[in-house]
From TrEMBL, chain A:
Belongs to the bacterial solute-binding protein 2 family. This is Periplasmic binding protein domain protein. GO terms for molecular function: carbohydrate binding. Residues 1-19 form the signal peptide. PANTHER family: ABC TRANSPORTER PERIPLASMIC-BINDING PROTEIN YPHF, D-XYLOSE-BINDING PERIPLASMIC PROTEIN. It is found in: Cell envelope. The keyword Signal applies. GO terms for cellular component: outer membrane-bounded periplasmic space. Keywords: Signal. The lineage of its organism: Bacteria, Bacillati, Bacillota, Clostridia, Eubacteriales. Residues 56-288 form the Periplasmic binding protein domain. It comes from the Bacteria. Its main location: other.
TrEMBL record, chain B:
GO terms for molecular function: transmembrane transporter activity. Pfam families: BPD_transp_2 (PF02653). The chain crosses the membrane at residues 12-30, 36-59, 116-134, 154-177, 198-219, 231-250, 257-279, 285-303. This is ABC transporter permease. Signal peptide: none annotated. The lineage of its organism: Bacteria, Bacillati, Bacillota, Clostridia, Eubacteriales. Keywords: Cell membrane, Membrane, Transmembrane, Transmembrane helix. One of its GO terms (cellular component) is plasma membrane. It is a multi-pass membrane protein. It is found in: Cell membrane.
Amino acid sequence: MKKVLSMILALTLTVSMFAGCSSNTGTSSGASSAPGTASSGQAPKEFKIGFPWATSSTDPTFVSIVTNVKAAVESAGGELVLVESDLTADSLVNNVSDLISRGVNGIIFMPASDSMLPTVDRMCSDAGVYYSTMFRTISDSTIRDQIYSSKYFAGGCNEDDEECAYNITKTLASQGVKNLCVINIAKGDTSSDLRDSGVAKGIKETGIKLLNTTYGITVQTDMTKTIESYIAAYPEMDGILIAGTYCPAALPTIEKALSDHKLAGKIKVGRIDFDFTMGQYFADKSFNVAYGGQQQIDPLLSTVILVNSVIGTPIVKDKPFNLVTNYLELTSKSEADDFLTYFLGDTPVYTSDEIKKSLIKFYDPSISEDTFKKTVDSFTVADVAARHKDLVKK
Amino acid sequence: MKTTLLKDLKALLLPIIVYCVFLAISFERFSNLNGIYTIFLQSIIPTMTAYAVAFGYMCGIFDFTIGSRIIISGLIGGIMSSWFGLPGLIIGCLVASLVLSAVTGILNWVCRIPSLILTMALTMIYEIVGKNIAGKFSFISIDYQHAVLGASPYIVYVLIFATIIFYFLFSFTKFSYHMRAVGSDEAVAKNTGIKTQFVKFMSFVIGGIFIAIAAILTISQSGSMGAQTGLGSATLIFKPLMGIMIAIVLQPLCNITFGILISQLTLNTIFIGLIAAGLPDTFQNISLGFFLLVVMIISNNVGGSKNLLTKLHAPFVTRAETAAAGSQTKGE
């Protein structure tokens, strides 16, 4: 009898033990159906985001990119791990490997080419690390399909470079430009190629004559030489478009060359990517139009997309979330001054608190793709100036 | 004197021939005097940089720091110009350049490691120094009224002044012969009693004078000087280096002082010529590379080329001689 009783007791205990396990499993799966949502003021688990970037650069645009990425990471309580990079494909692949070995949970970077992405994807997938890209789209369809099907690619932002170049060419045409010379980033860069095709589209539509395009100028002496060569070889030139350049002080160098030939103000100048010297030249009427502003919002939102995936609340389930951010157009000194104050200062275009409230799904489960699209649509220089007028010292 | 002049004129044929080629390709765009003057003005800064490179090059030093030294000198000159105007620009560039050149020279003397490694490491350090000097915006602008030396006619006066100094230093000083001896064979030079390390040090310092001139002209011409990182400053020395190589090829015809100027004129003629012809930038790089290869191949195979020409010419000469002999026989 004792034996029977002890066996019944043992059986009961065993069943109750499994029942306990079953109950726990249920709770766990319940939690994973809405992972990480803050039901009672919880914070996401600790995480680190790696960011390979030209951190030694003091260029205000480069510095502001770090400021914005940092704000996005800190909005959910994460830590930003910066590594110095020369931003070439080889260097970035090494940076990704380095960051993985340092135990990051996610990596945000600007791809130098499509061809580097499968390598990065393999490394991140093996390590179980999410990654996100900024500024660039994937042009190669085979690589795009491969990356988009990856579990660890969170998505990211890019701009419609082609549309931007097309629009700025049309704006220059509307300002009276008929013979245009172009300066662009080195060929092979995704943005450079897309901007080239946008300029070509704009030229075809407006009837402007494209006289010449020079690529990959990185030093001022070459910039001066190119502009002076344009002036010498093309006396009919009435417009210069800087579709992209990594040359420091590019705009002042061009303006000086034009000024030396008494052509400042006579030749229309436009540029893609805002320049912190443009306000002065807008005032002098020797600079006419700029498209940009994406350099702050793009890395910020790309990082927010990554952070949402890392903390277990991806914006879109089971696939990457890609967002196209808009270029802003500037044509006056006051807009340029506001850009300088509110975009290139110490304050990001969205503060950590603003991001936490409106873009981190962990804190607000109603956040969706539409929230991000609305954020992009309402983003202007005036919008940032209005939100941060009390935060930023002029 | 007459022979020297004739040889110089022969060397001058190089840019003239290149110019004529582009004139034939794009007569309308290339035939204006403004174009020729632009080519000349654009050749001045690379010539100054090439003069600076030449000192190290001649004594067997490959100096990567020249670009970063131009940038730092220009930045300091730019800062000084805001306090003391044009004299501040000149003194700032000169002092900064000489100090940096002396530091580089001393380190080359003390460290005794290949100059390529030393100067590459120093370039990275100088670039960071330059970046910090340039401040938040990574560049320093100067007032246009202090930038007169970068515009015509003053830039031409600077060229004449610098060319005379270089010509004198490179052709008539004991130091220049010591420099060539060190560059030719350092061990032999040392055995003959030349203080090879001191000669190398001096080549850095004297080259520093031309770095200062290049910095003054660069910041004056662009109105600003921007910092470079990631060895970006090395870009500044590649075309001047090409100029030196062509000048060495031209040495049998003219002094290296004029050879460098002539080679820069040639390179700039190609640059503007290709832009005038509406060819894309990638084609410009291909053409410059191809041109350098052609010049170097011809120069390194002069003997072979002559033999080949003689061989090709020989059958015609033999046939002509035979024909002449035949007609002579008939006449008899």
